[in-house]
Amino acid sequence: MTTDKLKQIGDTISNDYLGFIPTSNSTKPPHIANGLFRHCIGETCDTSDVHEWMFEDNAKNSVSSEEILEKYEKLLQNGFQEKITDIKEFRFLLEEIFNQDNGAYAGPSNYGFSVMTISSHWMVRGSVSSEGHIGEFLFKILAKQINGKRSPVISLVKRALENDSDDVTNIVKPIIAFPSDKEKRNVSGMDYLDDLNTSWDSCKQVIREGFDRLASNLEITGESKNSLLVLRRIVNYSIFATFLYLTRCNSAIYNGDNPPIVIDAGADLESIKKASEQAYTSAKKSVEDYYTNVIRHWLSDEIATDSTDACKAWIGGMSFSSQDRADTIRPALNSYFDSFCREESSAIVALSRALQIVLYTCEYKSSSPSDFCRVLGVRSGLIGPKGNRAKVKRYLTNSFTLETITLSTLSPDELKDGVELKELSNRLVEKYNIIIGADSELEYSLLEKYNIAQATPGDLRGDLSINALKLADTYISLGLGKKYADGVTLIGWRL
């Protein structure tokens, strides 16, 4: 089979440079959770029986309740006398509990693509395509030994998944334990990559530190005693971390821009909305720049001389999987290349920019890596408004995600003793370049640096402070903040 050069470039970036596949709209929290958890515990379980039970009769391709009754008669309290209506009601409840993120699809033929809400190790299954290797990418960050230690998140996840006595898991235990001719549990053991083979950069270091602080703080707050909450926190931060890496890897590896995350606290301030929208747009642009830089790096081994003729010859020699693709892609690539040559002194840089655009438009038609920012951001609770009608997105963090990010930012001592809102603001800038507005002068200067302040209408500097006050109220309502008579707001755990 002929190697398709454009597809090869996309696969190379995902597999050899980035470390995961950021091009699927179908990637959901359960997929990321399943990949990460599977690597953390080194085991999987066949959940096909639960999958059969989980969808009602009216779901397309689902197994009928009459078939369920016949197949699982010995499992039912009343055997073959069990009421079909009761079975249907139970199946409805199962889907409500175990398919909250719509990561599972009805019908036996769709089991291979389905991941359910994971409450224990009995719900962790083998790899599915929508995982996009994100769980593996995150596990490598957790598994790297820093000062001789791997992340405490690994043991925390193990402990949480081993606890299968929670009410959610107890619902499906009888189904999982139902006699079968197939082996349901597969224990392969942990597989740690040699630290020397683990690629590392400043953004991965930030993510690892965030994971470690989160684990420590879950112990401090007592949330570690609630296994379901632990799993939810870890997944929530995992999605945020993936978004962070995708939008920051160009800065970490190629010294590109590190666009800020401007949190709109919901005070209905037009300047904050616009600044947040622009910040999100800048994040997506940074992903495009990363792809351009990787392609440029890759082309340096492909093209011997940095000249227009050499690049033209390379385009002419590109192989494609079909003549239709060749007839579509090659002229478009030549056109973009000619245009960028007028702007760039380097022909290889011009070709890199052209290839990035063609890759996005021809290879990633349904979801580009920049579009994937929206997928991750919305599903992590970092970006909104939700829904396709809201074409313009911004950073609208929900309460749970705000808590998770805060728990990953403050040290255990800071969380116990509390820090002033301004100090928290500085911590968020330092670790994630997150702007909330509590240090308006510092944060305004950052927005000027990224040409966001200049393009924002109204009194952005003053509105940043108002935004911070609104966020302080949110922290107080969550039990993470306390306002004193002198106007000082401390952020900490149950102050």
Q: Can you lay out the helices and strands and say which pair or pack?
A:
Elements lengths: L4 H14 L10 H13 L1 E3 L2 H6 L11 H7 L12 H15 L35 H10 L8 H11 L4 H11 L7 E3 L14 H20 L5 H28 L6 E2 L7 H33 L5 H9 L6 H19 L5 H17 L5 H12 L2 E2 L9 E2 L3 H9 L4 H6 L1 E2 H12 L1 E2 L4 H10 L10 H18 L3 E3 L5 E3 L4
Parallel strand pairs: 3-7
Antiparallel strand pairs: 1-2, 4-5, 6-9, 8-9
Describe the structure.
Helix 1 (5-18) crosses helix 14 (347-363) and helix 9 runs antiparallel to helix 10 (227-254). The protein has helices spanning 5-18, 29-41, 48-53, 65-71, 84-98, 134-143, 152-162, 167-177, 202-221, 227-254, 270-302, 308-316, 323-341, 347-363, 369-380, 399-407, 412-417, 421-432, 440-449, 460-477; strands spanning 43-45, 185-187, 261-262, 383-384, 394-395, 419-420, 434-435, 481-483, 489-491. It folds into 2 domains: 27-200, no CATH class; 257-495, no CATH class. The protein is globular. It is mainly alpha-helical and 495 residues long. Strands 6-9-8 form a 3-stranded antiparallel beta sheet. A two-stranded antiparallel sheet has the order 1-2. A two-stranded parallel ribbon has the order 3-7.
In short:
The protein is mainly alpha-helical and 495 residues long.
Tally of alpha and pi helices? 20
Q: Bin the helical content.
A: 55-70%
Regions with little confidence, pLDDT below 50 for 5+ residues = none
The global form is globular
- When the domains are counted, the total is 2
The fraction of residues in strands falls at under 5%
Question: Could you give the count of β-strands?
Answer: 9
Main sheet: strand order: 6-9-8
What is the rounded distance between the termini?
65 Å
